[in-house]
Amino acid sequence: MNFNLLIKLTENDKRVIIALLFAIILLFVIIGLLGSLIVRTMRWQGKKCDTLVSDVVTNHIVKTPHQLRKYAAKKNIRHFLKQAWIPIIIILVGVGTILIRNAITKDWSYDLLNYNNGTKNEGGTGFGTLLWIWDFKNSDSYKKIWGLTLLAEWPPLVNEPHFSVDAIWCYVYIVCMVIGGTWYFIAAQAYLARTIRAIKLSKKVFEKSLDNFDQNTPPQQPQQPNNPAQPM
To answer: Which residues contact 147 (CB under 8 A, 6 or more apart)?
Structure first.
């Protein structure tokens, strides 16, 4: 083995590499858990489609897969509109808040993430006032490893959470967008889940399967009453 080809790493380099690998593994785990949660949630949300179409199926009102899908689509969109109109209004309230603020101040270059007025932890007009913010542009926090520029140490903190009266408009906007956006996303996800469920039901309900059919089994004869009435 040619030891001249071995890359000698400092302790700091090893820590950076280990932290990077751990972050990548953690990211994949989180993505996997979120994916599993979404699949299970959509499976549960799709069951609502059974309730929406059960009457026409059990009463044989729809007789083809196309009719079932068409009916389910109408019921599904109506149910979606019932669920979605409230979050849409909440989102519009949030957008309207920023528009009113900009109209009053005549400042249309408003920075929603502004976090101070030039002095650390003082003032600010954006949602950044409620966040911890680090200076990731600080070149001293980075180091080159194998030709790649990687974060070697945590950058300096430039802002800590603090309340600012000037950022009230942004606070209202962010709250409305988070609540309304999350609510609307759940409603849209449920709509998609019901659509997928309707397609599956249209195939399953009208499916003619021969999986358990045996040609050698004689057809069942209608049962006769135990004590047939004697002719007069």
So the answer is: none
The 3 state secondary structure assigned to the chain is: CCHHHCCCCCHHHHHHHHHHHHHHHHHHHHHHHHHHHHHHHHHHHHCHHHHHHHHHHHCCCCCCHHHHHHHHHHHHHHHHHHHHHHHHHHHHHHHHHHHHHHHHHCCCCCCCCCCCCCCCCCCCCCHHHHCCEECCCCHHHEEEECCEEEECCCCCEEECCCCCHHHHHHHHHHHHHHHHHHHHHHHHHHHHHHHHHHHHHHHHHCCCCCCCCCCCCCCCCCCCCCCCCCCC
The mean predicted confidence, pLDDT, of the chain is: 80
Q: What is the pLDDT of residues 128-174, one digit of tens each?
A: 888 888 887 777 777 776 667 777 677 788 888 888 888 889 999 99
Query: Would you say 183 and 86 are in contact if contact means Cβ atoms under 8 Å apart?
Result: yes
CB 173 within 8 A of CB 97: yes
Cα distances from 44 to residues 39, 57, 97, 192, 194, in angstroms, run 9, 20, 36, 12, 10
How far apart CA 93 and CA 209 sit, in angstroms, is: 53
Nearest-angstrom CA–CA distance, 82 and 60: 27
| pLDDT for 95 | 93
pTM of this prediction?
0.70
